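Tokens in:
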């Protein structure tokens, strides 16, 4: 377990993701690896809150579904 009490850890690249149909708003995001989808309790908590570190800085957010089976958290620039 890490210092926050969660046993899950992964590394991944930051991506840009556009939200919206007619006019996209672009965010810097971290996508959840597909293998983690079945490990985390999304059935009970669809927007599961997360705490952790990104580049050694504390981070809090929520996993947001994209509609195509992926999930992401928004990361401030």
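Residues out:
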């Amino acid at each position: 377990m890490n210092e926050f009490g969660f046993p899950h850890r992964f590394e991944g690249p930051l991506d840009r993701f556009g939200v919206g149909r007619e006019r996209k708003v672009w965010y810097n995001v971290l996508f959840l690896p597909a293998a983690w989808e079945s490990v985390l309790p999304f059935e009970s908590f669809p927007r599961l809150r997360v705490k952790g570190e990104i580049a050694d800085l504390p981070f809090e957010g929520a996993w947001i579904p994209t509609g195509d089976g992926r999930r992401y958290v928004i990361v401030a620039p």
